[in-house]
Amino acid sequence: MDESNPVLYAETDGIMTITLNRPAAMNAMTNDLMNGISEALANVVANESIRVVVLTGAGRGFSAGADLGQVAENPGEILVEGQDKNTEQSEAESDPFNGAMRAIMDCPVPTIARVNGPAAGGGFGLALACDITIAAESAFFVATFSPKLGIVPDLGSTWSISRRVGRARALGITLLGERISASEAEEWGLVWSSVADDQLDDEVARIASVLKRSSPGTVTRIRRTLDVAHDNTFSDQLDLEMKHQAVLVPRNMHEGAQAFMQKREPEFGGERD
Length: 273
Fold this sequence. Notes:
Layout (H helix, E strand, L loop, with lengths): L6 E6 L2 E6 L10 H16 L5 E6 L10 H6 L17 H4 L1 H10 L5 E5 L3 E2 L1 H8 L2 E5 L3 E3 L2 H5 L7 H9 L1 H10 L3 E2 H7 L4 E3 L4 H14 L2 H14 L4 H28 L12
Parallel strand pairs: 2-3, 3-4, 4-6, 5-7, 6-9
Antiparallel strand pairs: 1-2, 7-8
């Protein structure tokens, strides 16, 4: 596969597939690769026909994390947030890594991580930034930051891991840096599911088809509502749910009820919210 472009992306029938394309380096992250993710997601924002994003890696790995060869040769090539804040640059230019991660979290459609192999370091954070993470059973996850590099887990790892598995497991994962198998990740709730390698594409396609048929406004609101649930009181969350229902019930409930009575799949239209 041609590695001249570190990120490939293409849309087919409403599904945008973004492929990290540095297979010889296990899709290790560089500034160019992270900017490529941001560029692909900018196309998702601009194209209302896209309903789902699938993020995956070329070759036998999802992502090995930051390209340590780049760091060792020139530490300045991997930018630290805040380094270039005095220049008139976009976030993607001044902070390619966090810029790409924010683009994933702000994506207007649901995202699926198709973890086809190892997800290490920042690759771990990248896989968990997506809404639904599906791993091949040969894949594994490892947070190498503290024991191997002497740094804090980044790319949102501390946010995602603690929310998915709780403080006790999050501390073990991040402090020890031990390899976590795909089946363990599923058991712990780190990922949605672990499937046989030869079933990965079928399972990703199945999940993508469910999300694609869903009301685009509904899936966006569900994601945002869950993201703030940990910080809201129960009463605040009740109010937020009803705020969304006031918009979605008139928009979708009639079609949903009709489809249920007619024993068919509902057909939800509407634009993204």
